Amino acid sequence: MKKLLFSLFALSVVVAAGAQESDIKPAAKGVTYGTLAKTKQAPITIDQLDQKMTNDEFNGRITGKVTEVCQAMGCWFKVEKADGTSVMVKTKDHSFFLPQNLVGKTVIVDGTAKVKEVTEAQRKHFAEDGGKSKEEIEKIKGSEKGVQVVAAGVQVVD
Question: Which domains does the chain have, with CATH numbers?
Answer without folding.
Answer: 2-156 (2.40.50)
